[in-house]
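fwd from M.: "can u put these together and see what the complex looks like"

so here's what she sent:
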Amino acid sequence: MKLSRGQMMVDPRAILPVVAIAVGLSAGALVLPIDRRLAMEMLLVFAMAQGWNLLCGYTGLLSFGHHAFVGLGAYALILTVNALGISPYLSLGASALVCVLVALVMVLLLHRMRDAYFSIGIWVLADSLRLLFGQWEWAGSSRGVVLDASAIDPAAFADNVFWLALALALTTQIGTYVLLRSRIGLALMAIRDNENGAASVGIAVARNRLAAFVISAAICGLAGGLYYLSVLYVDPSGGFDIDWQIKILFIVMVGGAGTLEGPVLGTLIYFGLRELFRDAGDLYLIFQGATAMIVMLLAPNGIWGSIQARTNWRLFSIRWTPGPQKPGE
Amino acid sequence: MKPVLAVERLEKRYGVKTVVDQVSFTAAAGECLGIIGPNGAGKTTLFNLLDGCVAPNAGRVMLDDVDITHLPQYRRARRGIGRAFQIPRPFAGLTVFENVLAGVVHGADRSTAPQRRAIEILEAVGLAHKRDLLAGGLPLLDRKRLELAKAMSVGTRLLLLDEVAGGLTEHEVHQLVDIVNALKRDHAVIWIEHIAHALMAAADRIMVLHFGAKLVEGPPADVMASAIVQEVYLGISVDVAADR
Ligand SMILES: Nc1ncnc2c1ncn2[C@@H]1O[C@H](COP(=O)(O)OP(=O)(O)OP(=O)(O)O)[C@@H](O)[C@H]1O
Ligand SMILES: [Mg+2]
């Protein structure tokens, strides 16, 4: 086969994600010196949102209980450090592991539920976990638990946590991109669009859905673990606060569910609003709610979703194409 | 020739109602079995039992001499059963091309060039020029074509076509008959259809279902001419038919 000129050049879509990440990092490096704590929080909340988007936007399971994994990740990290005396960075493994295990148990309880039943079912489970940890004496009950500070080296601590947050955010973005471009990604989106139709073309619905759920749980667990590592303390009402879920929901819905760019945009909008109205008290909540409502009314698919529908722009394109159409077709 | 599909005394009840009643038949590669019957006769339910959407109350389904009665739906698809649903089930957020590719990469025929295979299928059903459109935006006729393409994407052994000709123009029905005639060369095809002349042009045998039970089965012309089919299916009473 003779290659035409067009085929020999690198497909511009292939380098777009690299360019997007490079631009994002450079922009981040400019504002970083201003407030690194804020930057870290943004990276972690972004990772949670993108993990949740994998489940909601690409697999079609709307979870209202992902704050469970934030809290579990936090407790798993702090408790293993305190009990075993190991390095908190290693304990992040416990955050992920505990979330994966709990996610598997949740699936046993929820696997017959769909749509609103699933959303509410997992919300109830998340709240039950909060109550459970509030009663658990060894885990500090409602007082919470403080990280054993002898386990950390204060000089490098803030730096390390920041770089880990950055690594998590990048891994999440690139990882979901690679996953969604694979045949598993095709399976997840088929399941989202028509569960029975997916099974009828050979897709193992339960197994793929389970994988997406477990991955999104692990990402939220790691992000929660890192966040509360930086705070050095977690209690049930903070770790299992539904406010985590609301943040995630706001970011993904406003940015655009089912797009890989949406959560990035949503995170910028969320934190932009928060910083703008940081001294305004309750007014900020009103503004946040109003933003969500206006976006939902004007752009039901989120801001990036609308841009994409109109312009067909994609920075992280997961579309499969058979190549340019042959002339005469 | 050895049958691809062998069905033995298959039965499905919903409550007290028997929707598929002790149905047995076979289908071999190289032939098209037509199924007709009045609305609610249990035709679609029979397909549900064959592709694994629904579990039977009794009976057996054998595909290539393997008992698949208790295999889940996706495993049956991977053994080469493809189905075009009466009500299309497109993956609305995926492109036409991706809809077909999903089946090619997950189904039985893990083709070495899945992209090319997907294009071949789209060309066969006449959707190649719409491959980059979102499936959710297709008009009904194209959805029906896509449904057939999705069935072909996994159905390497057996194709179950549920009223794929409904709503097509005369010309399109002819094209469809050509497609089915080409497909049946290396597949077993079972086609449920209300449009009698389309079925007559493709089917090698016709089976009539009535209240879930098999009424008659035989060569298309004989079946369509039989008095009992005229009564059940075409609504002409046997007495009147006999008088003429
Ligand atoms: N899940 C179900 N629960 C209860 N009854 C059902 C169910 N599915 C089908 N039925 C009943 O079984 C009977 C057969 O339905 P089916 O859809 O198989 O008919 P059909 O022959 O395909 O009809 P049509 O020509 O209208 O497509 C109908 O009376 C229907 O109401
Ligand atoms: Mg039917």
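replying to her w this: The pocket of adenosine-5'-triphosphate (ligand 1) is lined by residues B 14, 19, 37, 39-45, 86 (CB under 6 Å).
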